[in-house]
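Subgroup meeting minutes
Present: P.N., E.W., G.H.
Scribe: E.W.

1. P.N. recapped why we're keeping a running log of single-chain structure predictions: easier to compare across weeks, and new members can see raw inputs and outputs side by side.
2. G.H. added today's entry (211 aa).
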Amino acid sequence: MSQVDSMDNAAVARRRAAYSNFAHIVVGLLLGAVALLAALEAFGLVRGGWRYLWPGLLVGAGLFVPLFILWAARRYRRPLAQLLADHQQQQHFLLSGLLFAGGLAEFLSLAGVLPFLLALVMPLALILIGLLFIVHEQHGTAGAVARAVLAHRLLGGTLVLAGLARAVAVVLRGTDNLVWVVLLMAAAAQLLAYREPEGAYMADPEHSGHH
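Output recorded in log:
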């Protein structure tokens, strides 16, 4: 690999890391807002039509990530087929779809459409999202991948617990169960604090560069 190619690859890696950090921050803010609104609802401070706001934010979070990925790919002329062949990006689209489905189901549940059954979709979505984060593919040097995997496994475990706690609240018809809200806020804080480690998206001379 020439020095020019190496510099180009480093620039691409830095750009991808910057975009990834931005996406983590935006989704973290949205999930934090969801947790805050859900907490206010549990205390009776959010009522009526305002209760639809946090499910709407989940839908928005589910739409943001794929739209952002597609925008970035178009800006840098990355072929759609190449984008969709990337397992990490496939997981991003799946994660987004689960967020969208969870928010939409919660919205419909509040509207009185199969309220109990649809109320279970969002907890299930959180659990599946958590599991996907636990096995989320990473790109970069061996050290960067190891650090990113650890952070994503912690995040995934937090989301799995949040989903389980929310499922318990739904089954028990509890409106004062704030355990899932606290866990979701913890997950949001992890997303906000996360930054791609040094070496993310860089080629590793001794490893395949992904997990």
